[in-house]
Hints:
heterotrimer, A: D-Maltodextrin-Binding Protein, domain 2, D-Maltodextrin-Binding Protein, domain 2, 2 domains, nine-stranded mixed β-sheet, two-stranded antiparallel ribbon, 13 strands, B: mainly alpha, MetI-like fold, 2 strands, globular, disordered N terminus
Amino acid sequence: MSTTRRRVRLASAAVTVVTLLVAALAACSSGSGSSAKNISLRMTVWSNDKSQNALFNSIAASYRQSHPEISSITFDYIPIDNYTTALTTQIAGSNPPDLAWILERDAPDFVSSGALTDLTPTLKGTSGYGYDDLAASATKLWEQNGKLFAYPFSTSPFGMFFNKDLLAKAGVSQTPEQLLAAHQWTWPNAIKIAAQVAAKTAKQGLVIRDWNYKTWIQLASVWRAWGAQAWSADEAWGAQAWSADGKTCQFDSPQMQQAMSFLHSAIFTDKALPGPGETADFFAGESALTVTQISRASLLAKHPFNWGIVPLPSGPAGSSQVIGQAGIGVMTKGQHKQQAADFLAYFTNSANSAKLAQYFPPARKSQLTTTTLAKANPLFTAQQLQSVVIDGITTGSVLPSHQNSAKLSTLVQNALDPLWTPNANVDSVLKGVCQAIDPVLKQ
Amino acid sequence: MTVTPSQTRTPPRPAAAAARGGRRQYWTTRRRDVLSGWLFVLPQTLGFLAFVLYPLAAVVYYSFHTSNLLSGVTTYSGTKNYTQLAHDPAVPSVVRATALFCVGLVVFNIALALVLALLLNQKLRGTTVFRTLFFSPVVISLVAWTITWNFLLQNNGGINSLLRVIGVHGPNWLRGHDSALISVVIVQVFKNVGLNMVLFLAALQGVPRSLLEAADIDGAGPWRRFRSVILPLISPTTLLTTIVTISGSLQVFAQIQILTEGGPNNSTNVLVYFFYQQAFGNHDFGYGSAVAVVLFLIILVLTSIQWRLRKRWVFYES
Amino acid sequence: MSPETLTAPAELAVTGRSANAPAPAGRWKKPLLYLVMLVLAVPFVFPTWWMITSSLLPENEVLSYPPKLFPTHPQWSNYRAAFANYPLAHQYFNSLYIAAVVTVGTMVFASLSGYAFARIPFPGGQKLFLLILTGLLIPSEVTIIPLFKLVDRLGLTDTHWPLIVIPILGAPSVLGTFVMRQFFLTVPDELEDAGRIDGLGRFGLYFRVALPLARPALAAVAIFTFLNSWNMYLEPLVYETDKRNFTLPVALTQYTDAYGAHLWNIQLAASVTTVVPVLIVFIVAQRHFVEGLAQAGLKG
């Protein structure tokens, strides 16, 4: 009898446990799921901007009207400083997104890995798409053997925004625009202005946005003006950070040493930039100048002050425009590759490309005119659009990229850390960078 | 129901006797015990096999392979990951960071916990309030605590602002080579010292008053009493807390990621963070697995060393 | 940690006063002690204070100098923003129910196993216990890669299954098993013998005799299991991708603006909402917390 009672008790315990687990299963939510008729697509993005998201959702909504088999299209936000890691983890797992934004610095890894599907058949096969409208310079990074693996939806040049109110407050005599007109818009002059504002007001001078003493790749906007490279050139001159075949480190070149010494004294001697760990947001009015991509202009609506934008200053090697790119790829591991590719074709067709142009300068040659861009970017004057955006895209070169970008990124960041102290020895630090990354470059 | 003497917890009868009995139940106490014993531990045993033993073996297996997460290809690579680990230029910094962090944290934590326990052990009113205060960070969400300290330790954050008010120029806590390590140790110690404090407090209260009074009569001052009476008597607790704190210090991850991301220049790149960097940051599961194996071996070795040494410095263990 | 019980007083009372400490002598000793404790309390309390006050500051005052120790115009909208633009409420629920299920589950299975290891003589029991104890030495980071692959193969990434089942049955539960075993070892044999005479089988002995006695040990297991699950960071970071599946620790780190800069005041507001309820529960029930943990520590 006690045996039966015991067995009953054991059984009821087991049932309790199972119920608990089932309850847990019922309560937890799950990721994507679709049947043939009820397809849902997911695109990972690094933008949290409300107006950008509204635009994406409206494009998605109109696509779904003509494609009822797609039940939902979601845009998944992943913060940018963790973006590539999180995306790679998703791809490694069984729950990859259908589409994903990709940073230019990671393009070589993604394009060559087979993680992205070939978009060329779909794009060329979509009627009215206008595949030949895409600028070769924009698609270069995202192609392999003539096949396009990610669409460069954003080709965003870097420019220097400046806060006219702050400059006036600090008594700066010549604004960047005036200096530009007088062919005096150089880095030393820019730093002078920044130092003056930092000294005379409670605000910071120049902020290289998104750098934060960590994401060193943003410094390409500075060193290119010295003709320095991190490793290789793929275009004219001073294009990238490593040698032509990508196998030699160029951080210890004389040009890079000059560029970094300049930057170092600008930070620690002139106090023109905020020091390590100090944060200042230009778009909140906390600094006089900022180097960033023009797509950030949407932030200006929040804190209106008088502002202007000019191309990056010139250095000893002349003026150098730098571009950041972002591509959208379709994951090979996704469950609905073709539907995702079709949606991508729609998302980036001529009409939608013009809409997206207000945040993301397009890769389409026909749309790189001041009239088209002005319609999408009412904040900019025609002259700004021409000098910063159009000229930037046509003459500028993309941020450094390389295989094993994640590894290189951490190695360089760690090796550059000693540079951000007042008494750093620039030369030895840069040599240390090359020591650290040479083995990886040669792989 | 009558109970025969043989159904109590006595040594089991041999099966032959049962057969002799014939009518006796199949389910003797012994058999029931074996069944229920195994049934009771079955879930945990299965869980242990599936979630501890198997992954441990798998990690060793992966450490001998190279895998590319993007392309999904895994190839056998022998000891390549281990030789790479031996030659990785970041490893000396990682070892240094791990050792300093571990030692700094354990010494500071145990010492502070003991001091706090001694303070709370005094016959004062209101020590319950202080005990609550000292213990409160333990129940605060780890990430919330770390985020707050991250905020306070910014160069223009709360700590430096307050120092500036009294005219002191505080360092850039999270960006200085040594100050970053110190910061991380401090954040971690104040979070968890309450736990060790409570354990020490309980141990202190187990020290018989008579012994302390006898020592007092013999002329021992407070320090001597502490060293010769209290310390030996609480040594089991000291051992326990040291073991737990050491192995805990080797697993501190979230704080490092939120505060310093291993920087600046690997000065806070402890082994477990290095593991995350390699496995998930650089998408190198093979290399990360090699690091994980090394981490596990270190913990194993340290714990067994401490366990063996316990005979030396733990008194009164029953 | 050996299976033997270490010496401990039979009665444990962790009160504010101590039975064996001498009364402080000298007029200065008392105020000095109070002063020292007050000073020491600052780094424990100050961060929580700063967290709460800064969460009520507007964005431009958050890193201002001179520092604002008290908000002049409390900005409650930060709290609204913390919930409005992020699925914080849902993530809160996730953390809560996961921690609850894990706690209950661990209490059930750890007490079952602990009882068996302590009181049921079955072959291989001792050896198995020692083997399982090694689970205490294994940090979650060491096993996360294979577990991730396993969970992935089962198609369970981005669900809560790995956050529930693995802590209940895997390495994190070993401590619970250990504590329960140590406790059950101290149950007097006579009680069980009496139970047998009443006709109870093993499960009855466990459920009716041993378990009701185990309240302090169960409380201790519940507390540290709950805290452990509540604080899990690496696992949700690795297993979950959809934001709505996040738990609080990972969710709290997502408060960045469109381009990655910290939104300190909103982030701190979210942090406060995770901290205050647990803190209140703790302050009300702190005696049980502390006593339970002390018991567990001494018996280990």
